[in-house]
Structures are given as structure tokens and as C-alpha cells.
Amino acid sequence: MDLPTVALPRFVEDVRAVAPAPGQAFDLEWLPDGRTTLLFRALEGGRKGDLWVAGPRMRAIFKSKTGLARTVILRFKPGWSVPLLGVAASELTDRIVPLEDVWGRAGRELCGELLASRSRADVMDGVARALALRAGQPFETASGQLARRAVRLLEGGEVRVESVADRLGVTARHLRRAFTENVGIGPKEFARTVRLQRAVRMAATSRDWARIAADAGYYDQAHLIADFRQLLGLTPGAFSRRAGGRTTRPAPDVGPEEAGWRKVELPLHISSG
After folding, report:
1. What average pLDDT does range 59-75 have in this prediction?
2. How confident is the model at residue 10 (pLDDT cuts 50, 70, 90)?
């Protein structure tokens, strides 16, 4: 595949940026969702910062940090860690490591380039060029394609791993191996995060937990509560109260220095030239 023609939205699911007001805490929820994420942070003053890669999580973490000038979070679609980062997703599961630990000198140099960027567009251009240069060949692997097809089935409503494997013409064991390597968690665990994410989205507008449990695919409300406790470390009610009290929420696009989240438009293509 001719790498310069690959569209960035093909494998990047979402990019968010936030510029907290001076002294304001930046609150970050990292919920289990089967995604690998790139996180760039510039400290107040803009001369220092860091660049991290976070693998798929089996349990949520909640962080609050002050002293940040800006943060950009780039979330990959499941199944792209191997060609884009050069490492199996399973090596990153439940880990947050400096990109330098994964890429070596290239990760350190990219962090310096992003710190020198004058705009979010410059940040995205820098990340795009780095991904193009680092992307492995062949860009598409059979196991990666299999894992991504399984992701689509699981996110489309299929819940049984055996059924997914049968539809894809492979054994459940083969599917689990490919899925774990390319997504970072097993297909059964991924299906669990899909169900959790459905419930979290529904809880943004409803507190009818029995209905949420049924609509999200849980056996019953007790099943939902158990998953919230195990994956989030909170009861559904406690999670909703925490979400309602966050100081940093998604916000409309009001200018370059807004204190709230801003969705960043993806460049159409990455290029190594």
C-alpha cells in the first residue's frame, strides 16, 4: 500500500484538545473501551511537556492534574497498534508509558516538535508525519484485518465470541489470539467494554438503571452494577454523581484558548514526504 495515500480518519477514531484556564485542574476519565491512545501534554509556560501512549484498559482510572497549558488526546480505532506504533497492543494493556519507551529517540524528538507547535493543526501535522514514518510494512496484516472485522461485529451487537468466530470462518482460539495481539484485550473482554460504554452513554440522559441495563445488553440491573464496580470501581450512582460534578467537560468551539474540550478535525491524509 502506498502509505502517503492512507486517510488518517481510517485508523484514528477521535482527537480531543483542551486548554485549561491557568490554575484549573484537568480531570481525565480513562474508561475501558478497547482503545489505544496517544496523549500529549504541554505544561504551563509551554516549554516542557510529555508524550505518552496508553494501552487498552481493563479497569478505569481517574486523574486530575493542574499546571497544564494544553492537552491533545488522539484515540486510535481498535486494531491499529501494530502498524502505527510498531508494538502489539497486548504489550500496552493497562499501561501508560512514554512514547520514547516505545519509539526510542523518535518519540523524544516528536515530543519536542509538538512542544514547539504553534497551533493544534501543527500538532496534528506533526503526529501524522510521525505515524507515516513509523507505520510498519505490510501496513495491513491478516490478523489485524481479522481483529478489526471482529470489532465491528461486537460493536454491532454480537456478544458471543464463538458466533463471531463462526461468522469470520476461524476458530474461537484463533480469533482470541489475533484479537488480543491487535486490540490488546480478548474479544470477550472487549464485548464487555462495549456494553459498559452503551450504559455510560445512556446514563448521560437517564437514571432509570433497570431500563439502561436492559437496553445496554445486561442480564439485569444487578449485572450492570457488578460490571460498574469491577470495571469502574464505582456504583452506577456514584459514577453519575462524579460525571455531573466534573469541572472539565466537552465544550463548544469558542476559540483557541477555550478552557473546555474541543474536537479537532482530522487531516485527510498522512504523508511521509
Report:
1. 89
2. confident
Looking at residue 136, its pLDDT comes to 60
| Residue 53 to residue 73: CA distance in whole angstroms | 10
Band (246; pLDDT cuts 50, 70, 90): low
Q: How far is CA 115 from CA 66, 94, 108, 124, 226, in A?
A: 18, 26, 11, 12, 42
